[in-house]
Fold this sequence. Notes:
This protein has 179 residues and is an alpha/beta fold. It has helices at 4-12, 34-44, 95-98, 112-121, 141-148, and strands at residues 17-20, 25-28, 53-56, 83-88, 103-108, 125-129, 153-154, 167-170, 175-178. It has a 9-stranded mixed β-sheet with strand order 7-1-2-6-3-5-4-8-9.
Amino acid sequence: xxxxxxxxxxxxxxxxxxxxxxxxxxxxxxxxxxxxxxxxxxxxxxxxxxxxxxxxxxxxxxxxxxxxxxxxxxxxxxxxxxxxxxxxxxxxxxxxxxxxxxxxxxxxxxxxxxxxxxxxxxxxxxxxxxxxxxxxxxxxxxxxxxxxxxxxxxxxxxxxxxxxxxxxxxxxxxxxxxx
Length: 179
């Protein structure tokens, strides 16, 4: 990832990035930075109550947000990959991430570009489709630059072959939220 320190600084200062994921470009930021999360919500026109997904390159990046998980839950059945899990949160998990929900949506991505961005950032990242709410998700860096201009730092990358967003499920209840 070009300029790991520059990327880390951008995120630490509340910057928003656009990066390639499994099915589209995503908008991301430091999930601990409320102002950055609110910036993404404004860019998209998305209500905070819906909550957001976090992606990571490994489980350690998600641990600060997750309550202890039952030992019988085998996360290896789902990750790395395009499956987002709804998992219980730590008591101190920010509400600006979970919205009205009692769980948080998290994924360890297998997409090489998204994985590299999380590794370079040294943290999990907010991951929501790069688009205005209700519009088609963007699939190119050029489209992200055209829509968001200087408000977003667009990273180079290639979108994966998936045509649909990640599957979302709660592995503890067995509830499938999005296929």
